[in-house]
Design a protein that fits this description.
Blueprint: E1 8-10, E2 16-20, E3 23-27, H1 30-38, H2 42-47, E4 49-52, E5 55-57, H3 59-62, E6 65-67
Parallel strand pairs: 1-6
Antiparallel strand pairs: 2-3, 2-4, 4-5
Length: 77
């Protein structure tokens, strides 16, 4: 797969939890969790995951995340 098919769309404004081995770091947004992950040392960064709701993103999936506005953010209901 390449291009658009590789992208994983998520709402970056959702609360998220950075999972760093046995340390859970609650972040106000998915965007904040990605920034926190980027600040981890490399061996820990590649093993870390981010949980948003019931979905857990692996390090490989996090690299493919792209922001998509929710219907609420677009003013639609």
């Amino acid at each position: 797969m390449s291009g658009e098919q590789d992208k994983i769309y998520a709402d970056a404004s959702q609360p998220a939890t950075l999972i760093d081995n046995d340390i859970l770091i609650d972040c106000p947004t998915l965007g904040d969790a990605v920034v926190a992950l980027d600040n981890l040392p490399e061996p820990r960064k590649s093993a870390a995951m981010i949980k948003v709701g019931d979905r857990v993103f692996t390090a490989a999936e996090i690299d493919r995340l792209h922001h998509r506005k929710t219907r609420f953010n677009l003013g639609l209901r």
